[in-house]
Structure formats: C-alpha cells, structure tokens
DNA sequence: CTGAAAGCGCTTACAG
DNA sequence: CTGAAAGCGCTTACAG
C-alpha cells in the first residue's frame, strides 16, 4: 500500500506539499498538482483515514446506536441514515442494544475509542443527558432528551390524535391503545396522550395499555394481544404503536374469528413496508422516517463545532388510510 | 481526554510499560499493574483505538457491504452480523449499495481507507475476484465467488427442490418460479435450477421467470407479478425467491380475486418475520440466517493471517409449512 | 520486569 | 508557492 511518503518520493515534493494538495489547503501551483495527481494514479495511492484521524484528532465516522435492526421502523431509519451519511462523505459505525443501560454505555465507549465525530442515538431506554459534555455531539431520534442534546421526534401526540379520530369517525365505541413500554419513558408515550385527549373530547370509552419491555425486545406481542382481546371482548378499535404490533393484532384477531375491519378496526404507526403486506392492508400513521434520518445526519455534521447546541425538532405525521379501518 | 501519557505521568512509569499492561504483553509486576489500574480509574482513561490501529496498521473494524437494509433478509442478516461482531470485540462499519459496480468499488475503497480488518460482502452483482489480493480478507454471503475468497451460501438448489416438491404434492399443475434477477448471476439462481429439476422429474408444467434488477432495487414487484398472473391465468403455484416477493404475490392475487391457497399456492424463501404477517401466513424455505452471519464473522476473524484462504460452505435449508400451500 | 526510542501515516503552523 | 519539523496516541523490538 502506497503512502504519502511514496508519493512524495515519486514527485520529488515534500510530504507537506503533497498533503496540501490532497487537502486543498493554501496555494499550490498547477504543475505541482498535476505531478501529484500523476503519482497518485501511478502508485494507486489511497489516503489512510486512520492516520488522518489521528493527526486531526477527529474521524469521519458517525456512530449510531439503535435497539433493533430487524424492526421495520429501525431498518428503514438505519437505511436512510446510512445513505445520508455516505453521501456526505462520512462512514457509519453501527451498534445495537436493546436498551440495557450498561450495554449502551459500553457502546458509547466504543464510539469514544473510535473517535466518532458524532453519535445518533435512536430510541432506547436511558437518558441522553448522561453522555453530554463529551468529545462529540449527539443527536437523539425518538428518545427522551432530558438533557441538552439535540432531539428529533415526530409529532407523536398528533399521531395519537389522528388515530383516535379515525377510529371514532368509523364508528368505534370501545377503544384500546397499545402504546408505550411499561416502565420506560419515551416520546412515543405521547401517542397515548393524544389518543386519550380525542377519546375524552368525544366521550368514547377507551383504555391505554402499556406492555412489558420484553415484548419489544423480542418483537413478539401475540400472547399479550390475545390476552387483551380475550379480557376485553367488546373492543372494536385498536391503536397500536407500531406496524409490527398492528400486524400481530390482525393475526390474533383472525385466529379468534374476528373480522378486520368489520368486527375490529386497527391502526398502526410508522407506515413501513409491512403495512402493505397484511390483509387487509394497514391503516397507519405515517412517520417521515427519511426526513428524520436526514435531519439527524445533517444536524450532527453541522453541530461539529458548537457541541453544546440544543433543540428539539418535531416532524409532522399524517394518517394513511388503507383497509383496516 | 486522558492519554497514555497522562497515565504514564500519574504512575511514574514509562509509556511503554503502561502500554504493556494494557496489552498484557510480557511480564508485569503486580504492583505496576495495580498502579496503572488505579490511574486509569482516576483519570477515566480510555485507549484511543485510532492511534492503536495506526501503530498496529490494522484496526478492529469489520466492514460489511449489502444491497439493502430494509429488505427483511438483509436486516436480519445485518442484525446477526452486528451481534457476532460486537461480541468478538470488533466494531461494524456498514455500507449499502444496490449493486452498482462503481459504487461498490468506492465502498471497498472506504473500507481500505478505514483499514478494516476484514470485509463481509453480501449478495450484490459483481465478482468478488476483483477485490482479492488485498490488505484484508473478504468473505462473501450469497454471492458469486468467482475468485479465491471464502463464500457462504445456503443450499439454494435444495431450497428450489423442496419448494417444487411441496407445490406438486399439494396438487399444482402449472408452476411458475420467480427467482433470479435478469442479467445477474448469483447463487440464488440455483433456486430455479432445483425447482426445474423436480418439475421435470414429476413431469409438471413450469416456467422460470427472472425479473429486471430495478424491481429488486426498489423492492416493488407488484406490477411484474400482476403481468405474470394476467398472462398465465392457469398458474396454480408460484415459487418466489424471497418472502417479500411472496407477500406481494399474495396481495396481487387478492386484488385479482384469486384465493390463496385454493386457487393459487405460493412459497417464499428466507423465512423472515414478514412470513408470519401475511394472511394466510407464508409457507417458505427457511434459511439459517443467524448461522450464516455467525460463520461469516468467525471465518473472517480466523482468516486474519492466512489471507488467501479459500472455500465455500453451503448451509442447509428446510421447508416451513404455513398457510399458503 | 522496565525504559528509551523509533515508527505507524498523516496534518499543520512556521519559516522562507 | 514549498520545505522542515513537531505532533496526533499508541506499539514494539531492543537494551538493560
């Protein structure tokens, strides 16, 4: 592997000068530039990002920590984050943790060790505050900021409102909201808040249920849904806080002989691919996942210098009507 | 951020000695070790992986290149790869490319720049051969090796055979295989081969169709499926080369008034989460995704020194019967 | 068992 | 416009 030293020898220029043309720093004569370019080609020179990072003491690596990759919301999110990151010339380092605080701390240490230039923290359990005042900026997506970091979330409350309204408009009288993990505080909790508001405004019966964290970790809610439907046989509308949960509601309903949407209407959240694979297709709340991802990346990159920036952006959601309501 | 220099000062030991205790090289007196440990704690010292990589001229970063993240097969695969990577003490750098050769080359360069210690190449279009003879070993998953790298694939041919057999056992007379991308050679092509074999052995009518690469890139096959079903109205069994395609077959069939499995039987491939979200649930060919991911990672790490290792492991598949056959 | 020194491949003021 | 030199934070033979 050719190094800058080889290019220097090949061209007869000093290492410093060669480095300057690579970085476009200061004035460089046309002749010099051409010499260097020729040598680069000839030697098939590739800069060593590690060495560069060390001397600049900052890398071009963005770290991202998320609770799942297989969950469609997160696989979409990650997909868009990767794309935005790469297009801006950065590389992505990915870590998955199910929200275990200790594990997450270990990952943050990994990020530190690898001198990431920024970190995107997606959902997950614990407060962002604790990792503030660090070497790199962090932006949170759908996560409880509690501190001074920059946060991006969708308008969860509005999403909950839209869901309740749609269910009520379609004639539901006994609603259930399956939104929120027992014992964890997160922006998604606002989904239930909005839902509740609209139910009260319309004097419609409702219950907001939260589920144990294990279900979220394993992505299997069927037993829980079955129990809910059994214990509350007159439920005629369900608001699920993800398309995954909603899909499973459809499955469980079918197994109990309930027709969707005739006997039971359901609304999901996220608007991922699977919303179109169920039968009937899922009515759901659309999250602007792509925009959230892109905003996270560009904010992070913009934050490089002012590490103490603070703020919270709330993105719009919308109702996508399909076949389950 | 404390450096090794600070630890050296704090303990009164030389930098070399401190480094030695971190790396457990040679003999170190108990007293020295304790002093260092105390200093580390006091200063909250964290090693700089970048600096270490530079001096060892090799990092602890594994690179992975894949064509999709949102596709359930790849999100599962990536998920397992991340887990295996992290458990072995490595970090994961993720790149997505839809198989464009130039883009992929650029990503391989990124890996080179970042001095990854190994690369996992998932599916995608172009030959692995071209990136051989490099600084790092590469292992391919579901990809045409064509060169000297190490490859892992599932028994695609057997998968095709199992699918055809199941469809025939259930009484199908006119089969269609939707497996393979037009103009790209990949291990998954063997799915059709096995399918064809069994159809011939049983003298059953069949057609093997390939689809244009754009469909794979966008993950939307509905128009194509619709055309197939319209042009071949007597089709009574479809073998789709992924659960995604199979899900869309179910949707399209419904839109045309075809009942699954009564009028049309369908089998998918992969056995990912979405196979359980369709109605009816998908009969599919199970790929050992987790095992493939883990084997890829451990092989890669084992290959570190013998970069020229060669081989191909073929993993078993099995038929998972659910509701679409 | 430990220290001194060279080296990994770059960047960046500082001179000139 | 270009060169020489220090420095980024570590590792690793080589002495002792």
Automatic annotation (TrEMBL), chains A, B:
Pfam families documented for this protein: LacI, Peripla_BP_3
Keywords, in A-Z order: DNA-binding, Repressor, Transcription, Transcription regulation
GO-annotated molecular function: DNA-binding transcription factor activity; transcription cis-regulatory region binding
Classification via InterPro entries: HTH_LacI (IPR000843), LacI/GalR-like_sensor (IPR046335), Lambda_DNA-bd_dom_sf (IPR010982), Peripla_BP_I (IPR028082)
Domain of life: Bacteria
Annotated Gene3D superfamilies: 3.40.50.2300, lambda repressor-like DNA-binding domains (1.10.260.40)
Record domain HTH lacI-type: where: 2-56
Name of this protein: LacI family transcriptional regulator
Organism: Bullifex porci
